[in-house]
Design a protein that fits this description.
It is built from 6 helices and 6 strands. By secondary structure, the protein is α/β, with parallel strands linked by helices. It has one domain: Rossmann fold (3-Layer(aba) Sandwich), CATH 3.40.50. A 4-stranded mixed beta sheet has the order 3-4-5-6.
C-alpha cells in the first residue's frame, strides 16, 4: 500500500488506539504490536501497553513483493518471546488477537505455507485477515485465518469503519491464554464483507 491507502491505515490505527483508550478495562489489559511487511518485515511497534502506545510514521516502497510468510515468522518469534502462558504457578496473558491486512497475496508462497500451521498453533483468540482492495487474494488468506474479510475500497471511510470494527473486537476479545473458547466477533460494517472459508 502507498499513498492514500497507507495514510488511511495509519489514521485508522490512531483511531483504534484512541477508541480503546476510552475503555478502562482495555487500558488495563490491552497491549499492541504493529508489523509492516513488503520485501522486508519491520516491527514498527513492539508489544506495548495501550497507554504507552505511539505509532511511528512509516512509509512503504512504491512496489515489490509481499512477504507475508516472512512476516508471520517474525510474528511467531515475537509471540514466543513476549506472551506469558498460563501454568499451575503463573497467571498467563490474555489470548492474543491477530489482525492481518494485505492488499496483495503472499509472494513467498512456500514459506507462507510452512509457517501457517505454526501460527495456527500459537493459541490466538482469533485470527482475522483483511483482503484490502481488488488485488488482494482472499482465498490465499483462508489457511491462516479464522475469518477473512474483504475491504473492497481503499478510501479513508472504508478503513475507518474497518478499524472501528477491530476496536470493538479487541475490546470484547479479552480471553485468557488458557481458555479454549474462540472469540466471537461482532458483525462487520457494510463495507467489510465476511468471506466464507
Amino acid at each position: 500500500m502507498r499513498g492514500e491507502p497507507i495514510e488511511s491505515v495509519k489514521n485508522g490505527l490512531h483511531a483504534l488506539v484512541a477508541s480503546l483508550r476510552q475503555d478502562p478495562h482495555a487500558l488495563e489489559s490491552v497491549h499492541l504490536a504493529v508489523f509492516t511487511f513488503d520485501r522486508e518485515v519491520t516491527l514498527q511497534v513492539p508489544l506495548t501497553a495501550l497507554e504507552d502506545f505511539q505509532l511511528p510514521d512509516f512509509g512503504t516502497p512504491d512496489s515489490g513483493p509481499t512477504h507475508l510468510g516472512l512476516a508471520l515468522e517474525a510474528l511467531c518469534r515475537q509471540v514466543e518471546s513476549d506472551i506469558i502462558r498460563s501454568s499451575e504457578s503463573t497467571k498467563g496473558d490474555w489470548r492474543p488477537l491477530l489482525f492481518i491486512m494485505t492488499d496483495g497475496s503472499p509472494s513467498d508462497k512456500m514459506r507462507y505455507r510452512e509457517v501457517v500451521p505454526i501460527v495456527r498453533g500459537l493459541g490466538f483468540g482469533i485470527i482475522v485477515a483483511c483482503a484490502a482492495g481488488p488485488k488482494a487474494k482472499k482465498d490465499e488468506l483462508a489457511p491462516v485465518a479464522d475469518q477473512v474479510v474483504e475491504l473492497e475500497t481503499l478510501d479513508g471511510a472504508g478503513f475507518q469503519q474497518f478499524f472501528e470494527w477491530v476496536s470493538v473486537a479487541v475490546a470484547n476479545g479479552n480471553k485468557s491464554m488458557g481458555t479454549q473458547s474462540q472469540i466471537v466477533l461482532p458483525a462487520p460494517p457494510a463495507n467489510v464483507k465476511p468471506t466464507v472459508i
